[in-house]
Amino acid sequence: MAKIAFLFPGQGSQTVGMGKELSDKFVVAKRVFEEADEALGFSISKMCFDGPEEELRKTFNTQPAIVTVSIAAFSVLEELGIRPDITAGHSVGEYSALVAAKVLSFSDAVRLVNKRGEFMQEAVPLGEGSMAAILGMERSKVVEICSEVEKTIGVVQAVNFNCPGQIVIAGATRAVEKAMELLKAAGAKRAISLPVSAPFHSTLLKPAAERLAIELDKVRFSDPVIPVVANVTGKLMSSGAIIKELLVQQAAKPVLWEDCIATVVASGVKVSVEVGPGKVLTGFTKKIAGEIENLNVEDSDSLQKTLDYFREVR
């Protein structure tokens, strides 16, 4: 049997209605939503299933919602006997990966990301920070131009190295706008402002990281039972103590997703399954490692296609 990676999505993959089919059809998925509601003290399940969208888009709701849907889908796969050999998650998706690797309990993870979202939102006043996707430019050039802008205008950094030709920058709004202008002039195919409420993963989020560290200290971290790849380093994390420290750093440091997938491929993985809402990571993986078979599980149809694939290869 080929080695399997489970990849867990981050913020931006949320949609109203996500997870409802799985919750309706699988008791194990329904239990995940019930556990999330109990852990948070409000109905994240209702927000996932029915919205309203403006509430679901609020960072402190989006993050636990995505983790809940992802772990509901993971629980269904696990119950059906499909388990990963290695796992990784993009930004908040890293918490889902840690639940899958038995590092964190689901209840702890969903409470942590609710706080994480709150701290991130409060770190920078609305309108003072922004993000943009830069398409069609080498990472070294993006980093270089951001560094130049930072010397004169304000904080702007490359924060998500998603795949070849797609890098996200974040920082103070004026600095991001200037960097976009210079990057386009230097040959970037496109520079697209992103509809987000804070400059995630930039050094402006250090206050959020400091507050998150206090919350992380209240939670038990176990050593992973399967390998987990860290956003901050792109390398495997070996112990609960190291994972806790890297989660603190992750809030205000870049997501090295391209490096994460390189580590996944180097481990011998032939099949990746994006577990949770959307297919954003599937698109990235195709560009980073075209030789890997890509599947996803977010609803009944995608689950059935994934099960059919594994039945055939077995």
Count of beta strands? 10
What is the helix fraction of residues, given as a range?
40-55%
Q: Please work out how many helical segments DSSP would assign.
A: 14
**N-to-C SSE string, H for helix and E for strand:** EHHHHHEHHEHEEHEHEEHHEHEH
For the CA atoms, what is the radius of gyration? 19 Å
Contiguous uncertain segments of 5+ residues: none
The largest beta-sheet arranges its strands as 2-1-9-10
CATH architecture of the largest domain: 3-Layer(aba) Sandwich
Binned strand content: 15-25%
Average pLDDT works out at 96
CATH C-level category of the largest domain: Alpha Beta
The H-level CATH homologous superfamily of the largest domain, spelled out, is Malonyl-Coenzyme A Acyl Carrier Protein, domain 2
Largest sheet: 4 strands, parallel
Which descriptor suits the 3D outline? globular
Please provide a written account of the structure.
- This protein has 314 residues and is an alpha/beta fold.
- 51% of the residues are buried.
- Helix 2 packs across helix 7 and helix 6 (93-100) runs antiparallel to helix 7.
- The mean pLDDT is 96.
- 51% of the residues lie in helices and 17% in strands.
- The strands form three sheets. The protein has a four-stranded parallel beta sheet with strand order 2-1-9-10, with helices on both faces. A four-stranded antiparallel beta sheet has the order 4-5-3-6.
- It folds into two domains: 3-123 and 204-313, Malonyl-Coenzyme A Acyl Carrier Protein, domain 2, CATH 3.40.366; 135-196, Alpha-Beta Plaits.
- It has helices spanning 20-25, 27-40, 44-50, 53-56, 59-79, 93-100, 106-123, 139-152, 173-185, 206-216, 240-250, 257-266, 280-288, 300-313, and strands spanning 3-8, 86-89, 129-135, 156-163, 166-172, 190-193, 228-229, 236-237, 269-275, 293-297.
